[in-house]
Amino acid sequence: MDETIPYREQHMLRLSWMPWLYASLKARHRAWAEPWQAEVQAQLAALETITIGADCFIAPEAKLFGEPGRGIVIGDRCTIAADTFLHGPITLGPDVSINARANLDGGTLGIRIGAGTRVATGAAMYAFDHGMAPDHPIRTQPVRSCGIEIGADVWIGALAGITDGVKIGDHAVVAMGAVVTRDVPAWAIVAGSPARVIGDRRDKPLHGGNGPTSILP
């Protein structure tokens, strides 16, 4: 038995859960990682309505579902980690990362995420909502969809939730565990449930801003 196989399988698992490591692989690891990813992505594209850009990483444990009219478009150099759930319509700009256990459902009108945005572990975005009228049970209520728009260079913290109809401006930060129910201005830092503006990224130090009062993982 080839002694490198157990190590390689463990390395694949490591990449699935920490896909940001893919871009910095050494040449000897790229020799097997790139064909592995080509196979994973080709199989996914053959089975679902999905377009995948260049130099992407998609964990084989990720669950991506796209149908005609509800497809998924993945820009260049995106990474999608293990145990994520993506249901189109979803459009990811280039260099977007979706980390482990994130859940994104595009409803009818979709989720759009701008270039370079980071979606941390366990974050949830649902671009639809149920009615709550008292004369019908929840299971028979009508469903609406307004869509969700996330700008470029946004950081969505771990376990944050974003509800249907929300627009988040470029360079904004959503704190860990925040529940965003209304639009977020560009550069704003929001926290809480429901989320409210607590700061502005432009006021942060240029280097090393994560101290003991950090609101993000």
Give the mean pLDDT.
93
As a percent range, the share of helical residues equals: 10-25%
| Helical run tally | 2
Number of strands: 22
Query: What pattern of helices and strands is seen along the backbone?
Result: HHEEEEEEEEEEEEEEEEEEEEEE
The backbone outline, from C-alpha atoms, is globular
Descriptive account of the structure:
The protein has 217 residues and is α/β, with parallel strands linked by helices. The protein has two helices and 22 strands. The chain has helices spanning 4-17, 27-47; strands spanning 50-52, 57-58, 63-65, 72-74, 79-80, 85-87, 90-92, 97-98, 103-105, 111-113, 118-119, 124-126, 129-130, 143-144, 148-150, 155-156, 161-162, 167-168, 173-174, 179-180, 188-191, 196-200. The strands form four sheets. The protein has an eight-stranded mixed β-sheet with strand order 2-5-8-11-16-19-21-22. Strands 1-4-7-10-15-18 form a six-stranded parallel β-sheet. Strands 3-6-9-12-17-20 form a six-stranded parallel β-sheet, with no helix packed on it. The chain is globular. The model has no long low-confidence stretch (mean pLDDT 93).
